[in-house]
Amino acid sequence: MLDLHGYGWLLFDGLQLTIAVGLCAMLVAVLLGLLGSWGKLTSNRWANFAANTYTTIIRGVPELILLLLVYFGMPTLIQSIATSMGYDIRVDVNPFIAGTITIGFIYGAFSTEVLRGAFQAIPKGQSEAARAIGMSRLQVFQRILLPQALRFALPGLGNVWMVLIKATSLISIIQLDELMRKTKIASNATHEPFTFYLLASFIYLGITLVSMMVQKQAETWANKGVAR
Amino acid sequence: MDFSIVWQYFPMLLEGAWVTLWITVVSLLIGLGLAIPLSVARLSKNRFVSSPAYLFVLYFRGTPLLVQIFLIYYGSGQFRHELSDLGLWGFFRDPWFCGILALVLNTTAYSAEIFRGAISAVPRNDIEAGRACGMSGLLLFRRITMPKAFRIGLPAYGNEVIFLLQATSLVSTITILDLTGISRQLISKTFAVYEFYLTAAAMYLVMTYLLVYIFRVWEKRMNGHLKERLTSKTS
Fold first, then answer.
1. Between residues B233 and B20, which one has the greater pLDDT?
2. Fewer beta carbons below 10 Å: N end or C end of chain B?
3. CB neighbours of residue A79 within 10 Å
């Protein structure tokens, strides 16, 4: 029988942190995705340029490099700029915040593409009609565009979430005590790395399977009013 | 910011980039070879064939690559005596073997899923036409199904190749000196943190978009006959 030598709870603690980081990062990703898709679809050329640069760079660089850059690179960069300006400061980045922001920032680029597609899938006539009956631009966005875009984006955002939650395992490298790092601690203490990493992999698999079910439910719910 | 230090170590970074490309290509080729039979197995009507293929794909797509790498590299240590008895410990002790094995299994699962979709998207008419010409079994698969499926799956497979290139950065966690590994090593020596990471990021960016370009050209060549022909307007 599986003997965890009392380290099961440690993994459970890690799982909670993994889910917390995942949810916070997903929130960041969706907000950035909304901003990015606006940037891609607006007629402002500077916003176009910024949004395109953002998605091009993020999708071309590995998550690990970006994570290391934010967590180790940013503090030194800020410090060296401050030193050159005559200040002496020390910057410490909280691993939870660094991890959440980096992962959110990376998957913000992917949700930008998903949301851009979703907004483009809404017929233009609808927002024109809404404008014609006297809604303000904000009202059009809030009442017509956003609800439909989120429905169209649901499958894509579900995929982003499933890739994102797996990417949170990388945060263990910057010493945040999430599932992966707790697993390492447990496997070092018990000298049973296979048992613990296999268990951790099944926990991640469990998260994926639950997410798949939730996604299916959410899609049925969101498409209730749509005739097929 | 002082990039002269990066310039000084640039040949080492290039070596790292070469390792990254090498690992990517080797894993891709082995993965491609395994993914095609796996995708066929996944589509099999025999449940004893399709279920194991399904579970394999589910496991390797549903768990993080980092866990898979650690499971193979650190996890194999738990079975050291058994593996030594089988004469396999030499392989599992080697980070290169473990890293590439994990990448191969991972990309096999993702590519098999792509090809499964592509094979089921091959139009029925094509298969029926092939059968009408007297082909069946392997011949039909080789001449009709696979070439067509490959064309359909190519854009998605191109994305997988790019994901794999970026995923290889994770093997730096098991001491392999790829581009990421070299950068981390040079940083611990020189303390030029963001200079090296920014350079590495730029190098990955170049490699990624080079691959994107190659796949775009390849797609055009493969699907050239499907493009709408330019016809002069006559009235």
1. B20
2. C
3. 15
What chain B holds in terms of domains, given with CATH numbers, is 4-223 (1.10.3720.10)
- Contact at CB, B169 and A72, closer than 8 angstroms: no
Q: Could you tell me the two tokens for A195?
A: 């048992």
Q: How many domains does chain A have?
A: 1
Chain A hits for B3, CB-CB cut-off 8 Å, are: none
Helix (H/G/I), strand (E/B), else coil: A120: helix
pLDDT tens-place string over residues B54-110: 999 999 999 999 999 999 999 998 998 889 888 889 889 999 999 999 999 999 999
Identify whether A128 is part of a domain: yes
Question: Which member of A65, A195, A204 has the closest CB to residue B67?
Answer: A204
Query: CA angle at residue A160 from A69 to A17, to 5 degrees?
Result: 65
Q: Do B198 and A69 touch (CB under 8 A)?
A: yes
CA atoms of A173 and A71, how far apart (whole Å): 10
The CA distance from B194 to A89, in Å, is: 18
| pLDDT tens column, B119-156 | 999 999 999 999 999 988 889 999 999 999 998 999 89
A2 belongs to a structural domain: no
Look at residue A38 and tell me if it is in a domain. Answer: yes
CATH code assigned at A12: 1.10.3720.10
What amino acid occupies position B168? T
Q: Which of B71, B169, B173 sits opposite A65 (nearest CB)?
A: B169
Residue range(s) defining the domain that contains residue A137: 8-222
- Using DSSP, how many helices (H) and how many strands (E) does chain B show? 12, 0
Tokens of B127: 């298969």
Across the interface, do B1 and A80 touch by the CB < 8 Å criterion? yes
Q: What CA–CA distance (Å, rounded) separates A91 from B123?
A: 59
Query: What counts of helices (H) and strands (E) characterise chain A?
Result: 10, 0
Using CA atoms, how far residue B7 sits from A100, B17, B198, in Å, is 33, 15, 13
Digit-coded pLDDT (tens) for B174-221: 999 999 999 999 999 988 888 899 999 999 999 999 999 999 999 888
Q: Is residue A106 part of a domain?
A: yes
- DSSP label of A171: G
User: With contact defined as beta carbons under 8 Å apart, do A61 and B204 qualify?
Assistant: yes
